Amino acid sequence: MGSGNELCSQEFDLDAKWLVDPKQILVGPRIGEGAHGKVHKGKYKDQNVAIKIIRKGETPEEITKTEARFAREVAMLSKVQHKNLAKFIGACKEPIMVIVTELLSGGTLRKYLLSIRPRCLDFSEAVGFALDIARAMDCLHSHGIIHRDLKPENLILTADHKTVKLADFGLAREESVTEMMTAETGTYRWMAPELYSTVTLRNGEKKHYNHKVDVYSFGIVFWELIQNKLPFEGMSNLQAAYAAAFKNLRPSAENLPADLAPIVTSCWKEDPNDRPNFNQIIQMLLKCLSTIPQPEYVPPPTMHPPDNAVLPPESPGTSSLMATTRRGTGEVMNSELGEKPTGFFSCFAGNCY
Fold it and tell me: What PROSITE patterns does UniProt report for this protein, alphabetically (predicted)?
């Protein structure tokens, strides 16, 4: 058996710099699961990463579709880089299909919104997150890529909860005006109405649509950011999609801030041609942010010791001691002891997947 890179290069076409060596992948606890696979926290070459293990399928037809989807996702991930897209590190197809990306420890946007309920995000925070998402989508669209599954579960926060990044390209496709694309994609509650119909729900049915389906989904997500409620509350996913497609029903815009309501409602217009593109959305959001008054800076008071204060003598050993302990508690840092993190296990040493 050859190296991991040889295994990968025989199976699908990917630049050598993106090929990961499966022998250096360590898989830890599961942190997420979707329709097509599981995501684990792990390590690759001593770097903390997220490892997506693709579910291959049972039948030959399922396996063929999965492999095609995997190859498409990897190709697109290697094509685009942006600060608001989860950073792609590499992929491998054998012994199992794996995609490795940066580890974002802030959790999904869905979990974050749930954690702060019933409170809503601050105006600037909601607009800031919307800007992150719009910039990521603008990057994808500029490369001719439609995400097709934009929703809070596919938006991940950084550890400080200050930035949102788009992840999971499992349903993304390259846009083509000459090709018809399968319409049974995305999650119904956030799905553009042109994607949903009783005809196109049949497996394999195709229907023409374009990148404006992502704009509709963005409008629903932006509504959630502002209201911190589930859109079409009280309806099942299918009921919500049916109501949006055939009754032109949308979440209520009554309580949206006056500056944001026009942006949200323009994104979910029934005619895709009437929806703005993401570059226009970014400009509208930036204009909204510029109207927020900035808090006045108050410098901290300068502290002066009394003229007759007696200062303690400086200890020459304190600095070196503090450098090797955590916050001066006497706890020695792991780096000083040469300790390595534990709790991970090799995915390919056993049947962890």
Answer: PROTEIN_KINASE_ATP, PROTEIN_KINASE_DOM, PROTEIN_KINASE_ST
Q: Is the dihedral of CA 15, 18, 24, 30 positive or negative?
A: negative
What is the per-residue pLDDT across 52-61, written as a single tens digit (0 to 9) for each?
999 888 899 9
Q: pLDDT-based confidence at 180, cuts 50/70/90?
A: very low
| Angle made by CA atoms 70, 76, 82, in degrees to the nearest 5 | 135
Q: 56 labelled as ligand-binding?
A: yes
Q: Which helix (H) or strand (E) holds 289?
A: helix 278-290
Q: Does domain 109-290 have CATH number 1.10.510.10?
A: yes
Peptide bond into 118 cis (omega under 30): yes
> What is the distance between the alpha carbons of residues 157 and 268, in angstroms, rounded to a whole number?
25
What span, in angstroms and rounded, lies between the C-alpha atoms of 278 and 283? Answer: 9
**Is 149 designated active site?**
yes
- What is d(CA 147, CA 213) in angstroms, rounded to the nearest whole number? 9
The yes-or-no verdict on residue 81 having pLDDT over 50 is yes
Q: Are 111 and 31 in contact (CB under 8 A)?
A: no
Cβ 157 vs Cβ 104: under 8 Å:
yes
Which of the pair, 35 or 56, is modelled with greater confidence? 56
Q: What is the mean pLDDT of residues 184-209?
A: 65
Domain ranges of the chain: 4-103, 109-290
Catalytic residue (one of 122, 132, 149, 259)? 149
Arithmetic mean of pLDDT, 257-284: 96
Nearest to 155 by CA among 167, 141, 140: 167
Residue type, 81: Q
Residue 104 three-state SS? coil
The one-letter amino acid code at 340 reads K
How far apart CA 279 and CA 151 sit, in angstroms, is 19
Give per-residue pLDDT as tens, 55-78.
888 899 989 988 988 988 888 888
More confident residue, 130 or 36: 130
